């Protein structure tokens, strides 16, 4: 990426991509696997409870925010179309804002 150039992606796109990545990682059973600079083990272990339908957690944990810190959000956009029924997309869409990563768009 050129210096001074911002990658833009909507918060919804980032969140959907993160949740999709979470689902792919959980389904694959892979350990120590990285997708788009995100450790899938860390993502599953730290973000799933916040995004699961029926969760009453007020915000994603610091560990969840840490799990996605440094992720390549543009890369994660390719996963945004894969959301299972047990994932609350509205809660997932809150992750970027609640983690103070700001608004971005795919």
Automatic annotation (TrEMBL):
Domain of life the protein comes from: Eukaryota
Signal peptide range: 1-32
InterPro entries: Bifun_inhib/LTP/seed_sf, Bifunc_inhib/LTP/seed_store, DIR1-like, NsLTP-like
GO biological process assignments: systemic acquired resistance
Annotated Gene3D superfamilies: Plant lipid-transfer and hydrophobic proteins
One Pfam family per UniProt: LTP_2
Record GO terms (molecular function): fatty acid binding
Residues forming coiled coils: none
Keyword Signal: yes
Family annotation (PANTHER family): BIFUNCTIONAL INHIBITOR_PLANT LIPID TRANSFER PROTEIN_SEED STORAGE HELICAL DOMAIN-CONTAINING PROTEIN, LIPID BINDING PROTEIN-RELATED
Name of the featured protein: Bifunctional inhibitor/plant lipid transfer protein/seed storage helical domain-containing protein
The organism of origin for this protein: Aegilops tauschii subsp. strangulata (Goatgrass)
């Amino acid at each position: 990426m050129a210096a001074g150039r911002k990658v833009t992606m909507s918060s919804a796109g980032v969140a959907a991509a993160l949740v999709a990545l979470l689902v792919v990682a959980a389904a694959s059973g892979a350990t120590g696997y990285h997708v788009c600079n995100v450790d899938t083990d860390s993502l599953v272990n730290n973000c799933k409870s916040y995004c699961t339908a029926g969760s009453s957690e007020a915000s994603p944990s610091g560990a969840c925010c840490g799990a996605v810190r440094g992720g390549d959000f543009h890369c994660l956009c390719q996963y945004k179309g894969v959301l299972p029924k047990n994932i609350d997309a509205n809660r997932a869409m809150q992750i970027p804002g609640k983690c103070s990563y700001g608004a971005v768009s795919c």
